Amino acid sequence: MSVEGGSGANLPERWAAILAAVKERRRFAWIMLSQNAQPIYFDSSALAVKFASESSLESFKGSNCTDVLEEAARAVMGIKYDVKLIGPEGKMLPASPATPATQATIPATIKPMPKKAPSDFEVMLGQTAFLLHDQGNSRLAALMLDVERMEIVLRAEGFGEWQEANLVVPAFLVPQFTESVLDELKPVLRTVADRRGIDIGAVVAIPALPSIGSDWRERLQSQLAEGAASNQAKRSRAKDAKLLIMRDGCVFDSLEEVRVYDALKRAQAALPGDSTISIFPLPVGRVGAGNMWTPDFVVVRGGRVGIIEVDGPHHSGRRGADGTRDRHWRNSGVVHIERILVEEISDDAELDKLVQVFLKRLREH
């Protein structure tokens, strides 16, 4: 893509491409940008993004999303960009020590790109998610964050007709929208839809179609040539796994594990290079008297080893078994074990705090 000077003529197109690249890398960063920010300046070396509120700006910066935006801009434009984050009053947030930014003046002639109002269906999704959260169902509310959009389709069978709400989600997340999950979701979504005169008879989850271009054959060949994931979990679980989530050459069993992995990577990047941590997702090892187990994460810091397990709702009924398993880990030399509930993963800031507490305990004890 060619880079033009300070003209804002191609600003919407460039921003749309960068948002797409951000979404591929980290969905939380994409949500924050698409709902709370807009670009106000774009030239051959700098991108200025203005946030609607100080809180959204601080949340974006505090969740280490700036690096994701810079990486996405570099991938789209082909050069390194100086990304500037600006608050609602026009104040520029100080840059991180690692990436100092020069204070550039934003030309007054560049008009902000109009912010697109959310569609009715997007509003319905958001209201449904907040209602679920208000009702104490944070697990399902967090799952709604990964619904890309909703489509209402008229279905007919025999002499009957009904409207079906299709929740479009990434293909690897479709299995998480089980029949029981959809049964929980349906009455809340119907409550929201009824207020708009929409009678929803069924709710289903369907996979989002991949975004491709004319070079899709070359891209697919390149990805296939990179080979399969190399962590042991790929080989130990391949026979049972239906869909695998891949990141950095490793596989994961769930999006929650990916979010914990991203939090560990943020902590890793924030530590000095000569005293940081090592992260091993889903390794397999021989424990105790010969059990072959695969923890979700093994983390090494300062000669100490810790384990992080990401526990879903199914663990509520097997705490005794988990306790026995933890005891075997301790008997086998692993003292530091952290269990993170999926309900604690929906907010990146809270997840970062959990990881920091774990790393502090790993360092000090």
Itemize the secondary structure elements and their pairings:
Elements: H1 11-25, H2 27-36, E1 37-42, E2 46-51, H3 54-62, H4 66-77, E3 82-86, H5 120-134, H6 138-144, E4 149-157, E5 160-169, H7 179-194, E6 200-207, H8 216-225, H9 232-237, E7 245-247, E8 250-252, H10 255-270, E9 278-281, E10 285-287, E11 291-293, E12 297-301, E13 304-311, H11 319-331, E14 336-341, H12 348-364
Helix pairs in contact: 1-2, 1-4, 5-6, 5-7, 10-12
In short, what is this structure?
This protein is an alpha/beta fold and 365 residues long. It has helices spanning 11-25, 27-36, 54-62, 66-77, 120-134, 138-144, 179-194, 216-225, 232-237, 255-270, 319-331, 348-364, and strands spanning 37-42, 46-51, 82-86, 149-157, 160-169, 200-207, 245-247, 250-252, 278-281, 285-287, 291-293, 297-301, 304-311, 336-341.
List keywords for this structure.
14 strands; single chain; four-stranded mixed beta sheet; three-stranded mixed beta sheet; alpha/beta; 365 residues
